[in-house]
Each structure stands twice: as structure tokens, then as C-alpha cells.
Amino acid sequence: GPTAAGPCAPSPVRSSRCKPPAMMNAMNQRELLRQEMEATRLAFHRLLDSIPDEAFSLPSGNPAWTVGQVLYHMSIAPRMMVLDVKMISSQRWFFRLIPALFPRRLFDWLNVRLTRYGSRKLSRHFLSDEYDRAHNSILKVFDSLGEADFTRSVIYPDWDPLLTGEVSMAFLFGYIKRHFDSHAIQVEAALAGRTI
């Protein structure tokens, strides 16, 4: 128990309760983010399982995409973030060039068309596998990061209201759930009131 030396007196085995508060907070944050990413993966599969194949071609709540195209866009989002992580951790200078290289209008145009192109041959199995591959890709990157990486942040261009302004590494990983939630609403809007 606690001694005159304090609650974390020297010991051959250093328990987790004796780690500095900052270290504990970082560990807790990482574990919570990992749990959130896994919960989002499971939520995607539940959503996919709830949608009949014939609904993939329905217009979604997003005027640019069908229900199937929105699901595809959702499924690849974690994998697309791998580059964001790399840029925040080691290539932050690149964010100063992005607005000039990729103005928002070009970003939106590419986003719409690349999603349509990638979702040409939709199937339930394809969408399920795409999400799981993307999830595994971002988890590998997540596990490779050191504590110092989670102290870094950059200023994002004003492209996506869910990921703009000063973005920390933790906020970036939280984007996976925010992105899923925003598009799940669009999918559910397409199915509201429809009897399958």
C-alpha cells in the first residue's frame, strides 16, 4: 500500500496504477480509440446486414451516390486515412501545399467520381471485405505509433466539417466513427418508410 515515499514507491514490478498520470491518460486514450474503431467496424457490418441487396441501387440521402456507393465510400475510409497519419507524424509540411494543389472543388469532384468508380461491382461480400481490409490497415498504423506521435497536430484545409481546423492524431482516429455516423444517416434516410 502507500508509504511515506508515496503511493508508487519503488518496486521490482511497476503496476499500471503507478504510472505517471500523463502516461495513463495516453494509454487510456489509445485503448478507447481502439475500442471505438472496433465498435465502428461492427456497426458497419450490422448496417450492411440490415440492407437487402436490391436496396444498393436506391438513391441515398447523399445526392451524389446510391446506397451502395455510400456503403463503399464508408468501407474504404479507414484505409484512406493511412496517408493522413503519415503526413501528421512525419510530413506536416505537406498540409501547407494541399490548398494550392487540391482546392476543395477538385477534392469534392474526385471524391464523388472515385467512389462511383470503385463501387462498380458491388456485392455484400465485397463491401464486407473492403471494410475489414481497411480496418486492418489502419490498425497496423495505429499500433505502430509512439506516444510522441499522439502529441502532434496539423491544420487541415476546410474540406470536411468533420475534419477541419487543428487536427490532432487522436482526433484523426476519431474521424472513423464520425465519418461512419454521418453516412449511416444518409443510408438510413433512403430506407426510411420503405417496406422490404
Could you give a short description of this structure?
The chain has 196 residues and is mainly alpha-helical.
How many angstroms does the end-to-end distance come to?
62 Å
Order of helices and strands: HHHHHEEH
Low-confidence blocks of residues:
1-24
Helical content (DSSP H or I, runs of 4+): 55-70%
What's the main sheet like? 2 strands, antiparallel
User: Count the strands?
Assistant: 2
Strand order across the largest sheet: 1-2
Tell me the Rg in angstroms.
20 Å
Strand content: 5-15%
Count of helix runs: 6
Shape by Cα distribution: globular
Give me the secondary-structure category.
mainly alpha
Give the rounded overall mean pLDDT.
82
SSE inventory with pairings:
Layout: H1 21-49, H2 67-90, H3 94-101, H4 104-118, H5 124-144, E1 153-160, E2 163-168, H6 169-191
Antiparallel strand pairs: 1-2
Helix pairs in contact: 1-5, 1-6, 2-5, 2-6
Task: Please characterize this protein's 3D structure.
With 196 residues, the protein is mainly alpha-helical. Helix content is 61%, strand content 7%. Strands 1-2 form a two-stranded antiparallel ribbon. It is globular and about 45 Å long. It starts with 20 loop residues before the first helix and ends in a 5-residue tail after the last helix. The relative contact order is 0.17. Residues 1-24 have low confidence and may be disordered.
List key phrases describing it.
196 residues, mainly alpha
